[in-house]
Specification:
seven-stranded mixed sheet; alpha/beta; Aldehyde Dehydrogenase, Chain A, domain 2; oxidoreductase activity, acting on the aldehyde or oxo group of donors, NAD or NADP as acceptor; Aldehyde Dehydrogenase, Chain A, domain 1
Length: 528
């Protein structure tokens, strides 16, 4: 049941007078529930509870944290149709998408549960003492990862479940031993509250400390700003726009104690179409990319917003085929009137740039909040000289850049801002003839796809969902998969400590039976 209140630890609270409602973009009307904006008092209470909870939660065993994470997954599933219906009413997304995203969210939680139950993720590293070493004795050093402290997570507009209240950032932080305060996204506050209730029930059932999780509502930016600048907050997770992520990064850097902000932000995800592939598969590639560009109304951070090819008949044929196939797809609903408003504004700004040509757009009338897909094209030189053309148009929009030659293609890639993904479409092993192009692409992206589409992010240990700025604020980390836990920890060493007071992970007898590096050898054995 949705109350419209804030979860401050295990308790519901609504102290403030400022309220707001979510919006149903499919029906083009407000939803009925009223949500209370978090007050300064509620913010302070949530952070203070998290800071107090951290003292206990950081020491809780991996087995018990796994029970907590699995219980969250169970409670989310128990929400059943109420969650699905609320998700759809607040996003305009179909039921199938809601159920798929719920499945992904549950899978993420259970994956982290398995990770912390095993325990090897702490990367225990032991270098035993050599007291008789000449000329200087060697100390006993033992290192492992430890949690940072309370983490603030911002919900994402385009993934009300998988990147929001109990999404990847929250799951990873809880797995690491960090209490979490979620700043719920105002577009899906009802969905967020339902998920928050599931987390609180799970915390109570598994006897986690009060304050291990809180959920705060806010329709504006003030609550988020206050959370990021609160001295007891130790890290921030964000998925959203470059403007929003950069603002949080700057706020965190200006604190008396700067803290890390792990933000996954904008990306246009360049796709390189090599000539032989275009010659042999024009129509199939056009069909594949028409569907990828319009998937989810283009509201994915991995949407293929930029297609690069060598000027000529093959690329011209592809552009014409893409134009034909993309207008055959019926437009779909965007997440919110503000989202489609931004899409229309950014699309207009792009179309007003000198040298950009509109190839096609869906011209039939559409329902309110439904976005008409667009394909544009531009000469390589024009694209190089106009940084405005490099900006993301969030929605079903893509630009084809016609490059004069391989050298210009490489130059364009090298001058792109950092991206989440890059894709190479190749036939007959032709990709081996473009080593410098591929090297340039590798330097600008976090993941390269071969003969596929960038839309779709698998949750697994080898996934990298990040990239050079502004794709993310720290390209050394992924925001997806169990390795994303590394964002919420820091390495810590013990020197010459007595064995009996070391953490379980570092004791000679290895009571947890985890995989450790001992004097350079990976082993689950004891130190004799």
């Amino acid at each position: 049941m949705i109350t419209g209140k804030n979860y401050i630890g295990n308790q519901l609270s609504a102290l403030g007078n400022k309220t707001y409602k979510t919006f149903n973009p499919e029906l083009n009307q407000e939803n009925k529930h009223v949500f209370s904006e978090a007050t300064q008092e509620e913010i302070n209470e949530a952070v203070n509870l998290a800071s107090k909870a951290f003292k206990k939660y950081r020491t809780i065993s991996g087995k018990r944290k796994a029970e907590f994470l699995n219980a969250i997954a169970d409670e989310i599933l128990a929400l059943d149709n109420e969650l699905i219906q609320t998700y759809c009413s607040e996003s305009g997304l179909p039921e199938g998408r809601a159920k798929g995203e719920r499945g992904r969210t549950v899978f993420q939680l259970r994956s982290f549960a398995d990770l912390v139950k095993d325990g090897s993720w702490v990367e225990a590293t032991i270098d035993t003492a050599i007291p008789n070493r000449e000329p200087n004795p060697k100390s006993d050093l033992r290192k492992m990862n430890i949690p940072l402290g309370p983490v603030v997570v911002f919900g994402a507009s385009n993934f009300p479940l998988a990147y929001s209240t109990a999404g990847g950032d929250t799951a990873a932080a809880l797995a690491a031993g960090c209490p979490v305060i979620v700043k719920s996204h105002p577009m899906h506050a009802g969905t967020g509250e339902l998920i928050a209730s599931a987390i609180i029930k799970a915390a109570e059932k598994t006897e986690m400390p009060n304050g291990v999780f809180s959920n705060l509502n806010s329709s504006g930016i003030e609550v988020g700003q206050q959370l990021v600048t609160h001295p007891k907050v130790k890290a921030v997770g964000f998925t959203g726009s470059i403007k929003g992520g950069r603002a949080l990064l700057d706020l965190a850097a200006k604190r008396e104690e700067p803290i890390p902000v792990f933000a996954e932000m904008g990306s246009i995800n360049p796709v390189i179409m090599l000539p032989k592939a275009l010659q042999n598969r024009t129509d199939s590639l056009a069909n594949t990319y028409a569907n990828s560009i319009t998937l989810g109304t283009g509201q994915f951070c991995t949407n293929p917003g930029l297609i690069l090819g060598l000027k000529g008949e093959n690329l011209t044929n592809f552009i014409n085929s893409l134009a034909q196939k993309i207008v055959e797809i019926n437009p779909s609903c965007m997440l919110h009137p503000n989202i489609i408003g931004a899409y229309e504004n950014n699309k207009t700004k792009a179309l007003n740039q000198e040298g950009l040509t509109l190839v096609t757009t869906y011209e039939e009338s559409t329902q309110p909040n439904y976005a008409a897909q667009v394909v544009t094209t531009v000469e390589g030189k024009t694209f190089l000289n106009n940084p405005n053309l490099h900006q993301e148009v969030f929605g079903p929009y893509s630009m084809v850049v016609q490059c004069e030659n391989e050298e210009q293609l490489e130059e364009i890639i090298s001058n792109l801002e950092g991206q989440l993904t890059g894709t190479v479409i190749s036939d007959d092993n032709e990709v081996v003839n473009y080593p410098t192009v591929i090297a340039a692409l590798q330097n600008r992206v976090g993941r390269i796809i071969f003969n596929g589409v960038p839309t779709g992010v698998e949750v697994c240990p080898s996934m990298v969902h990040g990239g050079p700025y502004p794709a993310s604020t720290d390209s050394r980390f992924t925001a997806v998969g169990v390795n994303s836990i590394k964002r919420w920890v820091r390495p810590f060493s013990y020197q010459d400590w007595p064995n009996h007071i070391l953490p379980q992970e570092l004791k000679n007898e290895n009571p947890l039976h985890i995989l450790r590096s001992v004097d350079g050898t990976l082993t689950k054995g004891e130190i004799i």
